[in-house]
Design brief:
- With 357 residues, the chain is of the alpha+beta class.
- Helix 4 crosses helix 5.
- The longest helix is centred in the middle third of the chain and has 14 residues.
- The chain folds into 2 domains: 242 residues, no CATH class; 73 residues, Sandwich (Immunoglobulin-like).
- GO terms for molecular function: hydrolase activity; nuclease activity.
């Protein structure tokens, strides 16, 4: 796999049109570093309404309905969703809840992104919808309580390409679970949410090779933090996340600040030397690159007409341009007189970087 090295401000990508209540983050203004993280923890704890674990199934129709891929009203399961084709299976809300399962497609249940064994199934963590997603029971079981990580030699692969196997990132060699590229940034921002929301309780949790219980300010073990920072920058905030965040606020009255303000990630944890994983581009190319005019040509090994929207992000986390049905008339996009700089184009599950000179 071809890789290149570059330095980016982590947390720089995102769509900033979430329905944030007026003044919600005002008390965090001007703060940086762990002081900002602590204040955000206070903000998203205040007003939080604890719901029962069983009630999660009542929340999922608003937080996790597929309005973005097949748009068929089914349960949006990040472990089974195929972003560019037919899902291997899907579920209707309230139907085929687990019980027992033996293979994928048997039933869906509730996946704690941070395994509940790490906090001894205690409330409110056990029922916090911000980090508990509806997922296929079999894949959930295969994920077990493994950390999220990067897998090069999987021992098991789900029907949508999620993988279990030895960790390929430096700092940890145990078994990990790797979701598909489309949802890696989603997972990272959930992790950041959890260690912010529960910072004051983190020292009493088990690490699970993912939580840093001895340094609650950092929140995640160093190897996991570095990987989550990378996934955060490679996979910008999506419409799915914004919709979910708004629905979660309506459900339990708190928000994920790293969806509302992805730039907070860099302000808290700083910048990283990041490896650009070429698999995120999947043969998507922009020409010319660097860009010298306002028109770019996008090519790839897929039919780009399947993508209904394209997004362009600048280096400070702003969604600077959204293009509806970008490839219906061809494979060119006209830029809106963007200033010189580095940008990210995201369409569907594809991301790629380009430079305007």
């Amino acid at each position: 796999m071809k890789k290149c090295i570059f330095i980016l401000a982590v947390g720089m990508f995102g769509i900033t049109n979430a329905q944030i209540p007026t003044g919600y983050y005002d008390s965090a203004a001007g703060l940086t570093g762990y002081a900002l993280k602590t204040k955000l923890g206070e903000i998203i704890t205040a007003g939080y309404q604890t719901k029962s674990y069983d009630n999660l199934y009542n929340g999922y129709p608003t937080t996790d309905t597929d309005k973005f891929y097949e748009n068929d009203g089914s349960v949006l399961d990040i472990y089974s969703e195929n972003p560019t084709g037919t899902d291997p299976y899907n579920y209707q809300h309230g139907v085929k809840k687990c019980g027992n399962y033996s293979v994928e497609g048997d039933c869906y249940n509730r996946e704690h992104s941070i395994p509940q064994s790490l906090f001894n199934e205690a409330s409110p963590m056990v029922s916090d919808i911000q980090h508990i997603l509806p997922t296929d029971g079999k894949v959930n079981g295969m994920r077990s309580n493994y950390p999220y990580g990067k897998v090069n030699n999987p021992t098991w692969t789900s029907k949508n390409g999620s993988k279990v196997g030895p960790n390929a990132s430096s700092g940890y060699s145990g078994t990990v679970f790797e979701p598909i590229n489309e949802f890696k940034g989603d997972v990272a921002r959930v992790m950041f949410y959890f260690v912010t929301r529960y910072q004051t309780r983190l020292s009493g949790f088990s690490s699970g090779n993912m939580l840093n219980t001895s340094n609650v300010n950092q929140g995640l073990t160093t190897w996991e933090l570095n990987l989550m920072l990378l996934w955060h920058q490679q996979d910008p905030v999506s419409e799915r996340e914004i919709t979910r965040n708004n629905a979660a606020y309506n459900y339990q009255k708190n928000r994920n600040p790293y969806i509302d303000h992805p730039e907070y990630v860099a302000q808290i944890w700083g910048t990283v030397m990041a490896v650009d994983d070429a698999s995120f581009s999947k043969n998507l190319t922009i020409a010319p690159n660097p860009v010298k005019g306002n028109v770019i040509s996008i090519t790839g090994d897929k039919d780009l007409k399947q993508f209904k929207k394209a997004f362009i992000y600048n280096m400070v986390g702003q969604n600077v341009q959204t293009i509806e049905n970008p490839f219906q008339g061809g494979n060119t996009i006209t830029l809106k007189n963007l200033p010189k700089g580095v940008y990210i184009l995201k369409t569907g599950e594809l991301n790629t970087k380009f430079i305007i000179e």
